[in-house]
Amino acid sequence: MNKITIGMIAAALIAAAPLVSSAAGSLPAPFEGSSVLQAEGVVKGIDPAKHMVTVVDPQGGQASFTVTDPGNLAQIRQGSKVQVRVMRSAMVSPTRSAASAHPSPQTRSAEVVALDRASGVLELKGSDGAVFHIQGRDAAKVVNMKPGMHVEVAYAPQVSISVAPAAQ
């Protein structure tokens, strides 16, 4: 009877071993970062009172932006070439799977494609195949990330948008 009990305990320990080892291989801590998108286009329209600028990109796509940093708005004229810069804060949380635990328009799942440990920039590939970059606020928190890891990126609802004359 004693040998059977020891055998059952040993079997239970062997079965639990993978669970213990996966817990030991914990994920890196979540970290704060930001996503910056820059694009050039030609101004189609301006509404200075609402801080709105409508821009047409080189492919003919059109977008309107409410500029949150209106410092350069007085320099912008209809027909002028401009550079639009959109910045959003984000929380990057490593996950064990590719699927988002909290799907929403503000959250997206991605895989780490590459990282620059010196600058703290992650190159990520979303589930839709789009590649984007996140700049970690503290490069030291990004160093434990590795290509192939899955992350969930939760964007802050606030977006900072600036428009400046494009370099000629």
Structure report:
The chain has 168 residues and is an alpha+beta fold. The protein has 2 domains: 27-36 and 87-163, no CATH class; 39-85. It is built from 2 helices and 8 strands, in the order αβββββββαβ. The protein has helices at residues 2-24, 139-142; strands at 31-47, 52-56, 62-66, 81-95, 107-116, 121-126, 131-136, 150-165. The chain is elongated. The chain starts with a helix and ends with a strand. The model is unreliable at 10-24 (pLDDT under 50).
Strand-pairing-aware structural class: alpha+beta
**Beta-strand proportion:** over 45%
Helix content: 10-25%
Estimate the mean pLDDT confidence. 83
Please report the number of helical segments: 2
- The count of β-strands is 8
Overall 3D form:
elongated
Span between termini: 87 Å
The string of secondary-structure elements, in order, is HEEEEEEEHE
How many structural domains does the protein architecture include? 2
Sequence of strands across the biggest β-sheet: 1-4-8-5-6-7
Poorly predicted ranges: 10-24
What composes the largest sheet?
A: 6 strands, antiparallel, barrel
Taking all Cα atoms into account, the compactness measure Rg is 24 Å
Summarize the structure.
With 168 residues, the protein is of the alpha+beta class. It has two helices and eight strands. β2 (52-56) and β3 (62-66) form a beta hairpin.
SSE diagram, text form:
Elements lengths: L1 H23 L6 E17 L4 E5 L5 E5 L14 E15 L11 E10 L4 E6 L4 E6 L2 H4 L7 E16 L3
Antiparallel strand pairs: 1-2, 1-4, 1-7, 2-3, 4-8, 5-6, 5-8, 6-7
